[in-house]
Amino acid sequence: MRYLLPLAVILGACAPAQDDSSTATADRDYATQVEAPAPDYASLTKQARIEGEGYVRRDATGPIPPSAKAVGQTWFERLEAENLLLGAGFEGKGPGGAVTHLDVGMTESEFRSWTTQNGWDVPTHISWSFVPAMNLPEVSEAASEGIRVWPASSARTGAQNEALLAGRVELRDGCFWATEGEGEADKLAFFHAEIGLDRDSEGYYILVDRVGGQTRARLGEAMSWGGPPSAYISPQAEQNLRASCGEAPILVVGSPESSERFLTNYPHLRNPVVPPPPPGAGEGADS
Question: Region (Disordered) spans which residues (predicted)?
């Protein structure tokens, strides 16, 4: 006697076995690196930068048309809608004037392709600037297996605050945690788009400059960054970060640099000399 099995049963029996995704994720080991010795930054800072499409400023070449204000507003809104607007200059003393300059979060070649695909004529009475290309991936293949998510902006970085802030970024169980000052690293770190992750020749997880390729810090080192920094955090990026690493506050650390690397580049700050008092500063105290 022959038995006829449903087609679904036959296909299921023939299909290769698949791991349950939740079980596979739970069993996976993620990396932790909360401390690291400083590498030889004196040698690392001498390494050649990766050459690629660089920063470009395109000056205005045409006369200002009567429709300059409307044209500028159109381009301002186009860039802003795509999170590509990094800065703008206006005629006169405030944003009420016509747009005279636009900083674009694209390379010049990317901008050219974008405008061509949309059939837009680029106004020549506006000056433009374009960011350099990023020559490294967000996360290298060597580093990708150790992390749950890479918390970095999808938009290029514009002008930033420049106060020197100190802190540290740690990698714990595949998530990136940050502290300001000497406190506990209890906030979820978030980076600028230009920062990437790699592993160095000794196996340490490192932050790298995606434009020039330089090592900026090993995770776990004392660091500094300009700030308070800002970064665009898309809803999807925040959702992915929360799903992977929890509900702790997010701290934008921007583009951190090892404190040792900073002092290697500026050795006079390692042992700062207190300047002498100005002439006559102590004369009034004795009278």
Answer: 266-287
- Nearest residue to 98 (alpha-carbon basis) of 134, 136, 71: 71
**Residue burial 19-46, b: 16+ Cβ < 10 Å; e: rest:** eeeeeeeeeeeebebeebebbebeebee
Q: HEC states along 74-106?
A: HHHHHHHHCCCEEEEEECCCCCCCCEEEEEECC
Which phi and psi angles does 111 have, rounded to 5°?
A: -65, -40
Q: How confident is the model at residue 286 (pLDDT cuts 50, 70, 90)?
A: low
- Amino acid letter, residue 6: P
Sequence ranges of the domains in the chain: 29-50+135-269, 56-130
Q: β-strand 250-254 against 175-180: which pairing, if any?
A: unpaired
- Phi, psi (5° rounding) for residue 36? -160, 140
Peptide bond preceding 228 in cis form (omega within 30 of 0): yes
Yes or no: say if 240 and 154 are a contact pair by the CB < 8 Å rule: no
- Pick left, alpha or beta for residue 272 (phi over 0 → left; psi -120 to 50 → alpha; otherwise beta): beta
Neighbour tally for 273: CB within 10 Å: 6
Encoded tokens for 115? 């405008």
